[in-house]
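note to self — DONT lose this again. spent like an hour looking for the file last time. sequence + predicted structure for the chain T wanted, 345 res
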Amino acid sequence: MRVAVVGASGYVGLELLRILLRHPEVELVAVTSEQRAGEPLGVAFPGLAGLLDLELEPNDPKAIAGRCELAFTALPHAVSAPTVASLHGAGVAVIDVSGDFRLHDLALYERYYGAHGARDLFGKAVYGLPELHREAIAGASLVAAPGCYPTGTLLPLVPFLRAGRIEPAPVHVDAKSGVSGAGRKLEGGLLFAEVDASFRAYGVGGAHRHVPEIEQEASRAAGEEVRVAFTPHLLPTTRGLATSVYARPRGALRSAEARAILGEAWQAEPFVRLLPEGETPSLAAVRGTNFCDVQALVDERTGSLLLLSAIDNLGKGASGQAVQCMNRMRGWPETTALLEAPLLP
């Protein structure tokens, strides 16, 4: 299948290329970058020299649409929507990795993101978390790949919401991401000298754009409104995302039962791994992979349910998940090109 990566010079785009280069069913036919247009890919990114003989080109959806059957759009929010609309209107299947099509409430989108660039298409994408929406993804022509924080939160949380075993509000989420989650851009707060040996919270008090996304999908799973108190943090590491979710059980719940709920929910999933009792997820175990490691336990002193997860924010949190969606859309095994061991050390 002929595939384009729009926005190939960002961290998500580069990770898409790394995965797609080993995909047996994919031919990469177009890669775009506004900043690096005109440069051979191997010149702009020497690590890809000799692996893909393509030149980075400007983002021209009409020109791209005539050459591909599916496009990944790895563009910033607001920038992505018009490109997605143009490609989709030309008959190209699209997997969008921005936040432009994840939400279903336009007013909520505009509150967190601003004006939408393709209102006629808003609300028509399938939310691309295969573990939750596998059947809908299979028949979709437009998929919105989830954010990294929602993925790390929802995978351990949803089984308990579906089972009605926790109170829907407030659910407290404490999450920590590597700096690549902020994208490939020059900002003072993301410079090495500012991040190294430091640690800070940001987007606090419900201000982060992933809050409505988490609440949307959590509420769908619960069948009632879920409210999340979400605090993200910036880790002094390049990639990886660790999440701790705190919830109040409905009725008595012990650690063994909590682990059983999590294990039963995801036992058939190739990318969700329930860790042995007593082990906790680590970033090193998922770095460079599409895995999500999870754990559940009950703090019997306070009665709180603690849910833990670890993902690679560029893998299961973005590019790997997008490729998993593509595999599902095309009827290929979801694990195709994605069963990679972690990058160790």
